[in-house]
């Protein structure tokens, strides 16, 4: 590899890149994760869908950006891409390697607590198991749609998703059981709004609230929902910034209702945010604005 076309290697970068190259050789499409274990966000050329791709990456889209900035869809098996100069900055900032389970033909049942592990042992057939920070990854052969929160501390990662590489694990991989397929097809749990009601001051100056126009408010809420839904990385920060923008525009005149909040929380939870994270983000945004 030449300096002009390859990642400049230091010990840390080299170790992650070597791991990624080995996984790719074994058939796992891989990508770098940032220090906070998330995919890298869109580069400036691809931000705001300017590249022609799809920011939420439900399908890879036509984008041909050479940088790893499209979440799970950036995962690749190509050594030349992994070692290319455009990926250098990402590898230098990376904290881990991830892979696209669906692209490898597998499904990861992410069990994020001891109670979730106990449930899996009592409910699911044995398969290859990998230890994680708080629980285990159970890996099955076969693919299914990815869904977060199918049970308490249980996520399903397969198509249009990524999983952090935590090691080869132990045990023999078995076929995807019907119990996991059924969980992936269940309707999401109903979303509840924040437990505290939204209290905002009356408009200043005694003027009429300009947001009383249903079309004006509806457009603002719809745009906020879309911004959250289209996020391909940095979901926590996107949700917070969106809540902040909504409250900044609509939070001081009394026009926001519980229905509006539920819509925003629903969009956030569809991206994997928990009700607690939604409530925390909403509360932090209100605090930042002095509400």
Please characterize this protein's 3D structure.
The structure is a single chain. The chain is built from nine helices and eight strands. The chain has a five-stranded antiparallel sheet. The chain is of the alpha+beta class and 291 residues long. The protein has helices at residues 11-25, 79-82, 88-93, 114-123, 178-185, 214-230, 235-250, 258-270, 275-288, and strands at residues 30-34, 94-99, 106-111, 128-131, 136-141, 147-151, 154-157, 163-164. The model is unreliable at 1-5 and 188-208 (pLDDT under 50).
Helical proportion, percent range:
25-40%
Give the number of helices.
Answer: 9
The dominant shape is globular
With strands numbered from the N-terminus, the spatial order across the biggest sheet is 4-5-3-7-6
Residue stretches low in confidence (pLDDT < 50, at least 5 long) are 1-5, 188-208
Strand content: 5-15%
Helix/strand layout:
Blueprint: H1 11-25, E1 30-34, H2 79-82, H3 88-93, E2 94-99, E3 106-111, H4 114-123, E4 128-131, E5 136-141, E6 147-151, E7 154-157, E8 163-164, H5 178-185, H6 214-230, H7 235-250, H8 258-270, H9 275-288
Antiparallel strand pairs: 1-2, 2-8, 3-5, 3-7, 4-5, 6-7
Helix pairs in contact: 6-7, 6-8, 7-9
